[in-house]
Amino acid sequence: MASNNPEKSVEPIIIAVEPFGGSIRNHQPQLPLVFFDDAAVTRGDGVFETLLLHGDHACNLERHAKRFVASSRLLDLPEPNLDYWIAATNKALEQWRERTDRDAKCVWTYTRGRASTGIPTAWITVTAISDHVLEQRQHGVKVMTSPRGYTIDRVETTSTDDEGNVVATSSPVAPWLVVGAKTLSYAANMAALRWARGHGFDDVIYMEGDKVLEGATSTVVTVRGDKLRTPIPGGDILPGTTQAALFEHASQHGWRCKAKELRREDLLRADSVWLVSSVRIAARVRRIDDVKLERPDNEDEIRALIMGALGA
Amino acid sequence: MASNNPEKSVEPIIIAVEPFGGSIRNHQPQLPLVFFDDAAVTRGDGVFETLLLHGDHACNLERHAKRFVASSRLLDLPEPNLDYWIAATNKALEQWRERTDRDAKCVWTYTRGRASTGIPTAWITVTAISDHVLEQRQHGVKVMTSPRGYTIDRVETTSTDDEGNVVATSSPVAPWLVVGAKTLSYAANMAALRWARGHGFDDVIYMEGDKVLEGATSTVVTVRGDKLRTPIPGGDILPGTTQAALFEHASQHGWRCKAKELRREDLLRADSVWLVSSVRIAARVRRIDDVKLERPDNEDEIRALIMGALGA
Lengths: 312, 312
Known about the structure:
- The structure is a homodimer.
- In chain A, α6 (about 240-250) packs across α8.
- Chain A is built from eight helices and 18 strands.
- Residues about 1-5 of chain A have low confidence and may be disordered.
- Chain A has helices spanning about 40-45, 60-75, 80-95, 130-140, 185-200, 240-250, 265-270, 300-310, and strands at about 15, 25, 45-55, 55-60, 105-110, 120-130, 140-145, 150, 155-160, 165-170, 205-210, 210-215, 220-225, 225-230, 255-260, 270-275, 280-290, 290.
């Protein structure tokens, strides 16, 4: 893609993280980083988180860190030392700020490590946000709905918590299945996005029949009047860190927020539909399959609300 | 794992492959190989094949090469130049033979490449076969049966081909789904193996209810009298290259070979059950869940048959 984004010329930052704490050191991005026998490369066997660096902080850090630990646990990786990861992130941010004052994408990666050593591998990268992402943030996305293509076999029960929210509890029949972990085995999502792009769309919303699940790399949020809705997370719907931050923040500002089973018609009759995620933040859905979704009067207000939730 | 296998001290060989043909060059295995922004690392987005190097050849090369091309196509990667891959493999084998006359494991990896360049990344590695694998080849494996944990949603039809074999034709409802491709997104298989090992087993056979699917990284073959059977490949049962070579070879030697739906009881009443794959070649199943499978009289004959099929 042609680019006149000055950010593109900002050199990425890579910080190698000692998995059990220890030195924090920079790695030269022009050199290879990962060994041939690392489980990340040979098996997609590792976890990651993607964070937005804005101003003097990593947005929504606590929720990302919490999910990172949960993903590691699901993959039976040694518990990461969060203080250490956060220190490395702050160091990376500091280095980024010496280069530019623009936002950046920060990825934490934690793998099972090299076959020859058995010691986990860990690193943090900071890179410029692509034009593509900035454009989608500004102009929205055309979305194809689609079945996910597979079903996690599970026993599912639904209950109501103290605050009246519906809570889904779901146990996969295969107890090791890393459902709910953000793993590096993302080939299916990437293939879905390629398919969508090949058919004139920008993104995908997975459906189970008529039921809305999630975006390929984002959480679905609808706005109608003063109500924000998102599909009930759990099972193979990854709990969204950005959506969680948004709902907490919006509730404090008078919006009524609830996780709730959403149907296709809920998308079509909403005032607006959003795909929220950490770096793109919020992309308004401006088309679902062959239906155009009109720009709502309060688009800027909603966008500001989501940015506000992240302190971005 | 402690080891007195002299092979362990043989240095791995890495050959970087130019994806569109060109120079074949060695990469130093003590140095990192893969860049931080390679799709193999960030998304498990790539394909691989594992071959056995034995004597002066790569075993079953044609079938591996064919599946490699099929996997690439399913992932919408540019068609690999097979002549070039084979030349690189021969070069790697030649180098290995300068070091030792023992068998080796050769892996072909082909990824979508770096985000910053968009050019696929490709390399070949040759490494010693681990003691663990040699031990399982010799002594067999204890296997846990288990549901796969997910179901590929698909439309399936069954027909009979000219030779009377039942052929399953299966179309996933999600057309991009990379079912049948050997991708780097293997985290679920790795998790299943970890679970099995944590419970005193060596390996996993996936089941769909009572129906036998495949091993975590192998094809299931049963022997009863002069009959060899394997589950019908297709759908989410990866066509096995070693099983295919075995069936062709065994047919020529008077065995009756057929792909056929297998049930749990077929495993239990077989003379012997085998997990076949390219490097471990054949591991006899000596326990399925809590049932011990007795060693058959013809164990050595069957093993020799499978080795013979690979020219190993």
